[in-house]
Hints:
Layout: E1 8-9, E2 21-22, H1 27-33, E3 36-40, H2 48-61, E4 65-69, H3 72-96, E5 109-115, E6 123-126, H4 139-143, E7 149-153, E8 156-159, H5 169-173, E9 180-183, H6 193-196, E10 201-205, H7 211-220, E11 230-235, H8 241-252, E12 259-264, H9 277-290, E13 295-299, H10 306-312, H11 328-338, H12 344-349, E14 353-356, H13 358-374, E15 379-385, E16 391-395, H14 411-428
Parallel strand pairs: 3-4, 3-14, 4-5, 5-10, 10-11, 11-12, 12-13, 13-14
Antiparallel strand pairs: 1-2, 6-9, 7-8, 15-16
Helix pairs in contact: 2-3, 2-14, 7-8, 13-14
Amino acid sequence: MNIDLAFGAGCEDKPESGLAIQPGATPHLALQQGHWVKLICGASYQDMPAVRLLVMLYALAGVDCVDVAADSAVIAAARRGLTDAVQLAAMLGDQLWGKVLPFPQGLPWLMVSLNDSEDPHFRKAHFESAHCPSDCDRPCVSVCPTAAIQFQGPSLGGVATDLCYGCGRCIAVCPVGQIEAQSYLASPEAFSAQQLAQIDAIEIHTQTGHREEFAQLWQRLRPWRSHLKLVSISCPDHDQVVPYLRELYELMAPLSVPLIWQTDGRPMSGDLGKGTTHAAIRLARKVLGAGLPGYVQLAGGTNAYTVDKLLELGLINHRSFASPSDGYGQIGEISRFQTARMDAASAAATIAGIAYGSYARSQVLPLIEDLEKELELWLDDGSYEQSDGRQVASLAPSTSEFPWPALDHSAFRHSLTRAQKLVGQLKFHQHFLPTRYG
Length: 438
C-alpha cells in the first residue's frame, strides 16, 4: 500500500468535544515556520505494539516526525502505525472533525537514531534477580516508567529488554547497587537498501570531544545520504559544545538536506516535572546565540511547560502560529503558495521546534492496554519479528467496521486528545496543562 498523506494539527477551544486536524505544512516548512514537533519513541525502546500505537496517535495529533530505534522491526511497527493513522482518519473523520479530510502533502517523516559512541540513550538495564535481597522493597519496580522490571517470585525476574529505554532511574535507586547499564552501538550496516528507502531522516547522538568517532560514523552513513530528507545532531551541553558543533558542521558540509541541532538538555526526564525543561532551553539559547547553520530543536526534559517558558523568553516565532478559525482551505493555501518563511533575524533568534520523548509517552501509555482491547476487531494473523527473533502479533486494520460503540468515551478518543493537547501547544499556541502538574 503506497501512502503519501500528511497530518497537521489544529486545536479547538473545547478539545473534549472535538479535535481538529488540518492539512498542515510539509515537515520542512514546519521547521522554517518554527512549529516543528517530533515524537521520540526512544532510541532503545523496542515494544513494537506500543510503538505502533504511539506513532498512530501522534501522527493523528499532527507531529512532523517520529523518531524510533534503529531496529528493522521497530521501523516496520512505526510504518504500520502511520498506515493505521491514515485509515483511522478516513474512517473516523466525520466522527472526529465533522468531515473526512484529505492529507495531500506527505506523512510525518520517519527518523532513526544512531550513536557514534557510548550514550545513555543506547543502553539497557540489567541485573540478576538471584542476587536481590529477599527483603528488598524493590524501588526499581516503582520508578520504572515502562514496567520493564518484572518479578515473578523472590529470586525470579529481571528486565524486559524490549520495554527498557535506558533512562537509568532503576540504577540510581537500587539499594545494593547491582543494576548495571549495558551499552551498545546502533549499526547502520544492519539495514538493507530496501529498508533504507523506508527511512526519511537520521539523528546522530554524539558528545563533545568525539569528533573522530562521529567522522567514522558519518563515513559509514554514505549509502544512506541519498535517501535522507533531514539530518539531526543530538548533543548534550558542555563548556566546549559550540566549537564542537562547528567542527561537526565543517565535517558534514556541504549538506543538501536540512540540518537540526537537537539540544539534549536533560535526557529522558520530561515526565519527572516541569523544571526538567530548563536545561534544554539553556542549551538551545547557547546554540542559537552561536549562529550555527541549521535549525535548533529542543529535547531532553521537554514537557507541557516548555512552550510557556519559550514564549516567556521570546524564543518562539509568534508569526508561525496558525489560527484554528482560519479554516482548512486557508491553511492549505498558505502552505502551498506563500511558504511563510521566517525572516533571517527571526530565524536566528527563535527555535524551530520541540521533540517530546518520555513526557509524550507518559501521556498515552496508561491507556495503551485499553486501546489495544478496543482495536481487537482490527487484529489479523500478521506478525513482525523483533530483533531477538520473537514474533509479535500485529495490529492491522483489516476491516473498515467501526470498532467503537461510544467513541467519545473510548480509550482512543482520550489518548488522541492527550496527544493533540501536547502537539497543539506549539502548532497553534494552545495551552492545556495536565492536572498532575496543577
